[in-house]
Amino acid sequence: MTWAPESWRGLPIQQQPTYDDPEAVEAALAQVRALPPLVHAGEVDHLKAQLARVARGEAFLLQGGDCAERFVDCARKPIEAKLKILLQMSLVLTWGARIPVVRVARMAGQYAKPRSRPTEVVDGFGEVHSYRGDHVNGHHPSERRPDPRRLVDAYFHSAATLNYARALLDGGFADLREAEHWDLGFVREAERRAAYQDMTDRILDALDFVRVTGVEDPSLHSVDLWSSHEGLLLAWEEAQTFPVGDKFYNLGAHLLWIGDRTRQVDGAHVEYFRGIANPIGVKCGPSMAPDELLHLLDKLDPEREPGRVTLITRYGADKAGELLPGHIRAIQREGREVVWSSDPMHGNTVSTTNGYKTRNFDRILDELRVVFEVHRAEGSHLGGVHFELTGNDVTECTGGPQGLGELDLVSAYETFCDPRLNYAQSLEMAFLIARRLQGER
After folding, report:
1. Which of 7, 78, 141, 146 could form an SS bridge with 122, CB 3.0 to 4.6 Å?
2. How many CA atoms lie within 13 A of 180 on its CB side?
3. pLDDT in tens, 168-225
4. Domain boundaries, given as residue ranges, for the chain
5. pLDDT class for 97, splitting at 50, 70, 90?
């Protein structure tokens, strides 16, 4: 069937807001369509080539950022904090495991979120629309009605975020030591602290050597960091889709992914995604049967293009060992080459007795450990990780190097959706992954 950016319309669709004024929606989308693209098609192709290297085991994918960005976070300090933790994690992985790292941020567009229910009851307000992210509505109960003006607001916040992020990254790795210190105070055990300090010293000494000797390595003078978000609001994604040569590109982000709730083979999201030239991710949860996965790939990647598809598994620590082998064997049976990435966050979400949604650091690590072991046992390899994280010192996930417990959550619980790893937890996770990769290589 011939594809067009609007081919998805009329097909079964999930997780879309209901607006009161369709004409206002179309007017907002027309404004978005008329604005300049946020990224360039050449950048998209460059990322796809890097992901092809990841699929071959020649690089490692680090994807991370907020569960749901907020418009208020389009500011200097929040953007700097996100870039700082992603760069520091990538340095740890690069120099600790001796492997190039492809950095993809959940950033500059991750403003919409799927929800379990379309409405909820809030004390004092009755039944209101669920918060679907700043792309759709506000978090305060009085702002829950979907607002078409936010479709335009999302574009400008994405553009401003990308603009500042690119300006910060022009300095490359060599500026990192001067701009930010390495805070390892969260490491309590002396043995681990010594090991992490040694790795950190080696990283920073190498950067100093490059700076002093004047080695001309372009990779150290500019830093690639790609934008990504869940392609959820299809009308907005369509408005960001442009023909370039004989292909169509979504130029609102470098990489987009299909969520676990919207990956129906005959649904609107898969129909839209099959036609764009961007690299795409597919979330694979416990309900994904191996045959369904193959049907999805036949539709999304019939040409088996290198770097095209990243499979982001999200099972939960207790189910990964049972479910991942079937998915790996299905891919191997068909002779496909994909990027295997692990999202150890979503399958390990729990609610505390005092009503907080949280994730435990050890459970997240348990799923990663199982995934590494299964890939090795099946003759495959884990090519990347996908985290919801922040560079701020929030208290949203328990455990980790600071030993956070349920009672600590109240002190700095800032997320409006899902809990994120904080700065210390994220950096420790990078050290642990680097040690694992180092051992496997």
Report:
1. 141
2. 20
3. 887 654 444 444 456 666 766 666 667 677 767 766 666 665 555 554 444 444 568 8
4. 22-170+222-440
5. confident
Which pLDDT value is given to residue 210? 52
Smallest CA-to-CA distance from 407 within 419, 398, 420, 418 is with 398
DSSP structural state of residue 99: -
**What's the CA gap between 62 and 185, in Å, rounded?**
24
Close Cβ partners of 424 (under 8 Å, ≥ 6 residues apart): 183, 186, 393, 400, 401, 402
Is 60:438 a contact under the CB 8 Å cutoff? no
Please count the other Cβ atoms lying within 10 Å of the Cβ belonging to residue 366.
17
Helix (H, G, I), strand (E, B) or coil at 10: coil
Q: Give DSSP secondary structure letters for 26-81.
A: HHHHHHHHHSPPSS-HHHHHHHHHHHHHHHTTSSEEEEEE-SS--GGG-SHHHHHH
Assigned superfamily of 22-170+222-440: Aldolase class I (3.20.20.70)
399: alpha, beta or left? (left if phi > 0; alpha if psi -120 to 50): left
Q: What is the mean pLDDT of residues 66-84?
A: 94
Nearest Cα residue to 315 out of 270, 283, 269, 293: 283
Q: What is the mean pLDDT of residues 86-90?
A: 92
- Residue 275's nearest CA partner among 246, 300, 309 is 300
- Helix/strand/coil percentages in the chain, nearest 5: 45, 15, 40
pTM listed for this prediction: 0.93
